[in-house]
Predict the structure.
Amino acid sequence: MLEELFMPQSEAVSEKRFILPAGQFQRLFDALHQRGYQTIAPTLLDDAIVYEPVDSVSELPIGLTDEQRAGAYRVKRNPEGRTFFRYTVGPRSWKRYLYPPRQRLWQAERNGDGRFHVLAEQEDVPRYAFIGVRACELSAIQIQDRVFLSEQYQDEHYRLRRENALLIAVNCTAPSGVCFCTSLGTGPRVRDSFDLALTEVFGNNEHFFLVEVGTERGASLVEELGLPVAADQQCQMAEALIDSAEQRILKRLDTSDLKELLYRNLDSPHWEEVAKRCLTCSNCTMVCPTCFCHTVEDVTNLQGTVAERWRQWDSCFHVDFSYIHGSAVRISEASRYRQWITHKLASWQDQFGVIGCVGCGRCITWCPVGIDITEEVRALRRREGSRAAPASPKEENHANA
Amino acid sequence: MTRVTKPKLAVWKFASCDGCQLSLLDCEEELLEVAGALEIAYFPEASRAVVRGPYDISLVEGSITTPHDAERIHQVRRVSRFLITIGACATAGGIQALRNFKDVQEFIRAVYASPQYIETLSKSTPIRDHVFVDYELRGCPINKYQLLEVINAYLNGRKPNIAPHSVCSECKRRGIVCVMVANGTPCLGPVTHAGCGAICPSYRRGCYGCFGPKETPNPAALSKRWKQLGMKEEDLVRAYRSFNAYSEAFRRESESHERS
């Protein structure tokens, strides 16, 4: 049912590709507004490229690119020129819109006769059109669909936002230093579950978007805009850009035996080593596009006549998160980091059938001290390797020195 | 729900600037509601009218810095059912705890014309070092919404929704871009207790740590990163030595950089 509702296969609609000249990009925004969508797209805010309501293409990060490495993010001018999408993902993800950081779930009021009644939340959710969704982010949305829209448990608040959301994807052509989507098979090329997918071609006096159609909704937009069919050569130009991006993604996460690796290492001394560096500040979980953990709190008015239940983003790095009947079960920093990475890469597979990581690199960039999930996995493998093979005399000497 | 008698509230001041108790007056429209739900029985900053104790809730502002106050806090405890300390002075010793790192007698000689009249303790200490404290509200100053939340929770017999985690969680929920990662600005947010709503990062400044250490803070890891960003040892000492200088985590961290 999920698949039918939200994950249409792109090839079912059209194999044809179309051309949207960059100078006409605003027409797409206008068409979406006319259909009643609120357009959310990348824009520069406080020195980062983030997703915000954007009505005009002039608000996009024109001519900007980003540089990312562990613990550092910088927006730079793109020497190529006035491009729209030559950067990767910023600190916010689309989950901010599909699964807001804080929202009221319901209210209750006392009747005055010792009883109370519940007031359901009447949500007025805009119809979102997300513009600039990357391949890794489409995968992340699909993962959150599994969490919030499973056969067993349906989250109405997520469903309301998700089922009307229109997704206009963008193929990555400028990966950053923390990207490792190729290791997870989630990018840089957009493959499915989009309405439209754009590839921005820039250079040699050309600036256009190659447009792929993924759904009927997408097809009707292309029709309304009257976009011309792309020539083979134009398609090849776009393909070459994505191929080149793929070649430039150098960071790797070895996923072979990954679940077993983490399960074998629950008692590894490595967790204590990470704990020395980890701030348990929760930034990694907050920026992660798949992390879905939240807490629920009840607030009251002073008189105690009205109560409200609120849900807000929480994190497995918070001590209270593991509070169970009288005490938290994950007090040590080591146990909290282990919980996060083991859930993300291993037990997520048992729980939802997929790895919980899409290789977007946000947790690496936005960790204030630059802890790198791929490096920690590598370190675990190294430790196992050195345990399996007896240490050489030289290494022993070094250890004793 | 009707209450037969309203719980009595008292507000006490020790060594402090009054900013935290002003937060109660600062509640403005909510203050009328508070006054409706509680009897404001002892609050010299707001009214000379005093209702005798004992009191159901005592809000205690300020740190203990004199022998007289070290006695007086026991009297306050005796007349209080729930004692809630408010602010960095009451919970960590405040900015005046900078004396704890130096010789207070030297200060007295340097500052006062007649030092023989000054009777003060060598250290400024938080209230919990002297009496049992039921709840601590952090901040310099406290956040008025957190104060209302504690009073509200007390009146309704529930746990206050006050999280001990980092300021970073507040930044991320608000969608504030990290000043450390995006600008290289040193920020105490990753080791600091939430509660202010991430005011400074929202103005593109690093967190000053007004709410003191968060749960399980790791300032050593943060300092290491700050050094990579170009901060000097003496500046690290100063960064941890402000309103919450004498909180254990910040004190140890500042001392470790003083020694090296």
Summary: Chain B has two domains: 8-155, 167-259. The longest strand of chain B covers residues 55-61.
